[in-house]
Amino acid sequence: MKLKLSKNRLSSGSGDDKTTMASTPTLAPGEISESDRKLLDELRKRIHNELELVKAYDDDFSLMRWLIGWDRKIEVVVPKIKFSLRAIHALGLDKEDLSTLEKVTQKCDECSVPLRYLPGSLIGFDHENNVVSLQMIGHLDAAGLMPATRNSDLYRMRIAESEGVMQIIRKMEKEHGKPFGTSVIFDLDGLSMGQIDMAALKVVTTMLSQLQEMFPDVIRKIFVVNTPTFIQVLWGMISPCLAKQTQQKVKILGNDWKQHLKENIGEEVLFERWGGTRQAETEYGNVRMGGKIPAELRYDPANDLPAEKLTKLVVSSRSTSFVPITLEGNVPGRKLYWWWRLENNDIHFSIHRAAEGQEKVAEHDDDYMVHPKFKLQTDFVPEDGEVSAEEPGVYKFIFDNTHSTFRSKTVKYFIEVRNP
């Protein structure tokens, strides 16, 4: 049995960009047409500086994913790949060794203790050498997650996981001379309507949109198993954040789902719980099963910074505001620390070091990205962190509310220079 789903046309990411990802067929193994070669040459020229930051992406298959994913429209591709490569560099992922599934898992575990309760794991490679991700959505404690971790930690973890998978894929592509991707299994066993937390769903769907923008045309197959009776309702919530080509790869399987997985993934890859023959101490193998997040991991609002330390910033609707911090001289070990809360709703947050002559504008394409732009809310846990600020210049803490048509946003923040 295969459930037919409506094909919702959707925006291909956050903000007001209405370009949809194309349903162009997957690149034939090892083949790149002459017209695509010309596009690759043009793309390389347009993103030369970003490829200098993250040299690993300067290969044909990596860049073709962007061209295919965005219908070969260079003007659409360039700003998106620029952001992605700058973000990967800002997060330091280009310097990480994420060359095995185990190293990727370890990196994700380092992001946040509460996020270790997220169910699901990378389990191996399917018949076509695509990386297999198995997600136990029905075991997710969504209501417990939101009060326990920062929104930005979830972004960092999923971006680290995605970039780790890309490191593995790029290595295989160099060895085999053809493109690879990922196969994803969503197991909804145990999922109930009562588990669907709307605050968590909003964060997750926003994050999924950003991941698709940063890592286009990677997913090859999506299998959904153990579907509840309200699957159409759930699909209606999730599908608007999925690119059209991703929606077309979704297969919702019926009672014979184990046979389908064995045929498409491989029984030697799957543990007993999913119809496989892979040996392990339990039927679930090494798949993280999630579970209830302990109450002691929840953030205590009593730990908020006192009001007298905070500065109030009101960001009007459809506008961007920033807090400039000027640092003199090159100081090894110097860092910038921040803490902030919104009174309600969400806002985009990023940190740039201003390009020469651009100190008085919020964002400029020549700025150096210090912290990527994430759409964040702080209803439960405030945002805080620190970044290296050894280089002199004007560091801009940017609060972008351009996505909000009517609502202004009130931010209460604290920024501190920390010298060694």
TrEMBL record:
InterPro entries: CRAL-TRIO_dom, CRAL-TRIO_dom_sf, GOLD_dom, GOLD_dom_sf, SEC14/CRAL-TRIO_domain
Organism: Caenorhabditis nigoni
Ranges for domain CRAL-TRIO: 110-282
Descriptive protein name: CRAL-TRIO domain-containing protein
One cellular component term from this protein's GO annotations in UniProt: cytoplasm
Compositional bias of kind Polar residues: 8-26
Region annotated Disordered, chain positions: 1-32
Residue ranges of every copy of the GOLD domain listed in the record: 307-417
Entry superkingdom: Eukaryota
CDD domains the record matches: SEC14
Pfam family, one: CRAL_TRIO
Gene: Cni-ctg-2
